[in-house]
Design brief:
heterodimer, A: alpha+beta, 4-stranded antiparallel beta sheet, 13 helices, B: alpha/beta, globular
Amino acid sequence: MKNVYLPITVDHIARVEGKGGVEIVIGEDGVREVRLNIIEGPRFFEAITLGKKLDEALAVYPRICSFCSAAHKLTAVEAAEKAINFEPREEIQALREVLYIGDMIESHALHLYLLVLPDYLGYSSPLHMIDEYKKEIGIALDLKNLGSWMMEVLGSRAIHQENVVLGGFGKLPSRETLERMKERLKEALPKAEYTFELFAKLEQYGEVEGPITHLAVKPRGDVYGIYGDYIKASDGNEFPSGEYKEHIREFVVEHSFAKHSHYHGKPFMVGALSRLVNNAETLYGRARELYEGHRELLRPTNPFANNLAQALELVYFIERAIDLIDEALAKWPIRSRDPVEIKDGFGVSTTEAPRGILVYALEVKDGKVAYADIITPTAFNLAMMEEHVRMMAEKHYNDDPERIKFLTEMVVRAYDPCISCSVHVAKL
Amino acid sequence: MEKKKVRIGFYALTSCYGCQLQLAVMDELLKLLPRAEIVCWYMLDRDSVEDEPVDIAFIEGSVSTEEEVELVKKIRENAKIVVAVGSCAVQGGVQSWGKDKPLEELWKTVYGDGKVKFQPKMAEPVSKYIKVDYNIYGCPPEKKDFLYALGTLLIDSWPEDIDYPVCLECRLKGNPCVLLERGEPCLGPITRAGCDARCPGFGIACIGCRGAIGYDVAWFDSLARVFKEKGLTKEEILERMKIFNAHNPKLEEMVEKIFGGKSQ
C-alpha cells in the first residue's frame, strides 16, 4: 500500500564522524516526529575502565574518538591530576594547550573543508573536488597537516596521543622544533583567513533561526581558550564545573545509544559558536577584528553560524598557539615531567574540545579508577540538534524527500557531530 | 593498457573512526585515487552505497550490535577481498577490555535502566563472524600500513604480516629500554612491530596497540615472568596485556604458567 506518510529516512548520515541516521515522520498536518538515530554500538568506556590502573585508563580514554583524541587525553589527564592533587607547571600547561590547539586546527579544517564545503559546492565528496577546487583542497590539507604535525611533535602522533602523562610529557620537543612550529603557524595564518572569507560567503539557512541557549567553558585568565573551571551559559548563569550535574541532566532515549542532555530542562548548544557567544570579549588579535566585522553572520540564533565560528577559531588559535609557544620558550630549558604521587581523590575537568564542552570526572582510589563520568559535546548537542532538524523539516515537509534529506543532513553537519564520542556515556 | 578501476568500499562498525581518519587525510590517498573507484565510504562521500559488490572491502570497528553482525555478513558476500582495519576490527579493540564483566553490568553502569531499541552485544573482532583475508594492525594503523596494504592490493599482490616485535624496532633505533632501564611494564616484546617503536621513542611504555604478534610467537609467558620479577601481580599483568588482546586465546594460559596456577 502506498501512502504519503512514509517516513523519510537517512540510514547513515554521510560526512560526519560516526554512524547516525535521521528519521522524519510526516503526516497530513506536517512533521509528526523527528529522530536522530544513533546506531553505532556502545563501548562502555566508563564501565570498562572501572577498577583499572589510572595510567592504563588514561591510555584508553582517547580511543573514544579519533577526531578529538587529544582533547580526550588532555581532559582526562587534567581530571586525574586534579584528583591526585597535582598541578602542572605553567610552561607544561602552555605546551599542553598547544597540543590541544593542534587538535582544534586539524578538526576544524577537516570539518569545514572535507565535510561541510562539498554540500555548498554541489559535490557528494571532497574527493571529487580535487580538479576543480585545487586551492581549497590544498589549504584544507595544509591546515590539517599542520594540526597533525603539532600533535605528532607534542603528543607522539596525530591520533591517540601517548606522550601526555601524569606530571607532564614523556618527552618534549627541542627548542628548534618549537621555533619551527611557530614559523609554520605564521605561514598558515593567511590560509586560515582565506578560510574565514570563504565561509563568510556561504548561506546560513533562515529556516532554523531562533533562540538558542549556549553553554561554554569560561576561559581561565580571561583569555579565549580551552581550559576553564566554570561553565557559562548565555542566559547569564555561571557555575563551577564540578556542579555540572546540578544544571545538566542526562537521560536515555530509545532511538539512540547516546544519551541526551538538557540544561535546566531544555536543549542547549555547545561548540565554536557557543564559545563565541559566551566568550567573544576575551578574543584578541586578528580574530577579534574579524569577529567585530562579522557579528551579524556570527549571530547566536543560527546553528549554521557554527561553521563560520570554527573558521574564526582557526585564525584565533593559530595566533594563540604562537603566543603559548613563546611562553614556554621564555622558560627554556624545561623539564618534561615532575614526579607524581597517585593519591586518592576526585577531580573534574571541563575543557573546550573542537565540538564544545567536554567533561571528565574521575575518582581515584588505590591507584585505580573508582568512578568515571565522561560527557562529550555531541551528547550535549543531540537534543538541540534534533530540534533544529525538526525546524528544517517543518519548513520543507512538502518538498521532494531528497531535498528534505539534504537540508536536514546539512543541519546535522553544521553541528559537526562526533557520534563515536557521544556513544559510551555517563553513569547515571 | 588501461586497467579496470578497483572497486573499494570502506565500512565502519563500532569504533572511533580513527582508521578512516588516518586514511582520509593522507596526501598519498590522492595519488592512489585514479586507480580506484570508491563505492562506499560514508565518512567522505554522500553517494555511498553499502550493499554493492566491491573488489576490496575495508572494515573498521568491532562487531558491537546484532545489526553489525548482519552488516559484516553482507559485506563479505559483496566483496572479493575483505581487509580488517585497526585493532577494533582485528582484535575487538579497547572496548573488549571489559569482556570479563557481563554485558548487563556494563549496560547498567552506563545507561542505568534506560532502554534502546537496537541490540547491543559485547565487542568482538570481525573474524569471529566472517572470513577475513588480510589485516591492517594498529590503533590507529600507521600511514605506511595503509600505503603498503593499498599498494600491494592494487597491483594484485597482498600485504604480508610482520612477525617480529616492537621491541626489535626499538633496539634498532637505539632507544633507552623503558622496561629494563626504567622498570616500566612495556609491552614492546609481545607487540607486533611496524610503528618504529613510536611510544618507547617518547619514553613511554608500549601498551600494545598493534596487538600481539601472530604465528604464536607472542611470548606472554616470558614477559609475564619479567613483570613478575618487577613486582607486578598476575591480575595487573593480565589487565595490561588484555587492553588490546582481550580475545587472544593463548594469553591467560601462558600468564597462568608463570604463576604456577597458584595465587600470586
